[in-house]
Amino acid sequence: MKVTVDDDSCRGHGVCCTLCPEVFDLSDDGYAVVETPDVPAEFEDAVRSAAGMCPEHAITVS
Ligand code: SF4
User: Which helix (H) or strand (E) holds 61?
Assistant: First the structure.
């Protein structure tokens, strides 16, 4: 599974970082960055939850 964040949509709420800090981090300017675009199997559920709960729908999983 792969995950990306749309930089233009992200507003830095940090929901993703709370739900899966192993994959998402906040950059110094306060927006989400993907630390591990190839999501390890053990974090797939958390990443799907983050994608579903992102207020800006900025997270895409494939
Ligand atoms: S939850 Fe969505 S809007 Fe918030 S930091 Fe993560 S990707 Fe950005």
Answer: strand 59-61
Ligand 1 pocket test: pick from 15, 20, 53 the residue with the most ligand atoms within 8 Å of its Cβ.
15
The domains of the chain, with CATH numbers, are 3-61 (3.30.70.20)
pLDDT for 4: 98
pTM: 0.95
Segment 42-55 mean pLDDT = 98
Q: How far is the CA of 45 from the centre of ligand 1 (A)?
A: 17
Q: Span 27-41, mean pLDDT?
A: 96
* Cα–Cα dist 31/8, whole Å: 10
Residue 10 Cα, ligand 1 centroid: separation in angstroms? 5
